[in-house]
Amino acid sequence: MALKVSKKKLSLFTSNFSLTYFIFFITLTFVLMFMDYRYDYLKQIRKDLSIVTSLFISSSNNIMNFFENIQDSTKSNASLRDEIKQLNIKIDKLSIENQIRNFLVAENENLREANILSKKLSPKKTFFAEVTTPTIRGNKKIVVINKGTKNGLREGMPVVNKLGLVGQIFSTYEKTSEVIPLLSKKFAVNALQNNGKNHVIIYGNNEFLEIPYFPVSIQISIGDIFVTSGLDNVYPSGIKIGEVVEISPEDKQFNKIKLKPSTSSNQFSLVTVIDY
After folding, report:
1. Domains in the chain and their CATH numbers?
2. Side-chain-side CA neighbours of residue 149 (13 Å)
3. What is the pLDDT of residues 23-53, one digit of tens each?
4. Taking the model in full, what pTM does it have?
């Protein structure tokens, strides 16, 4: 059952309201406001209170600034990370472009040297080719080039690059040829010491070039260069073969000479095949 609420309990002022007191306090308030405005009585009170309130205001401002700084720092870090990522992408791109540029410079240099070599061997016919797959087949080192019978190549042609003798073609196909490199055990070449004397045969042994029996009576030194002699009618004369790196006694009459090749099939992608 609903309870009945009396009007007396719902009234705004429920007990002992005095209109006189009310008017008095209102008047006092206006008087104090006027006196404060006119003579500034409450200035010191406000000043003292401001010391207390300023601490709360300063603290709240510091807290707000702290969180704002964290937010700004987070945004700045994210922006920096994005910039670093973009810079790394540019660096990688430039690095790749630089590698391509260096490769093209090297290839241009090879072409210039090959052109010079072609003029040097004139009127011999020359063919430019690229090394595709240096490999080993049945313990034999093989170099494959991208020119064959279709281009006019045939077995026995010497292969060179700007540093010296690379090898000799031993097998030809329509579009490719296989080359025996200097270090192959199947390779041998008639050579001449760089002083214009002392004809020898140089052999490959899979690691170095060697002259197995070189007379001890003939002067030879570390660093001496051997070149093709041209006596075999296979290789033009004067092409570098290798440099002496070791001289060891074979017996009382002969020394064994070890040579380092002047070039390697892995050093340059471009080679020259000579029709000699």
Report:
1. 125-275 (2.40.10.350)
2. 6
3. 888 887 777 777 666 666 666 666 666 666 6
4. 0.56
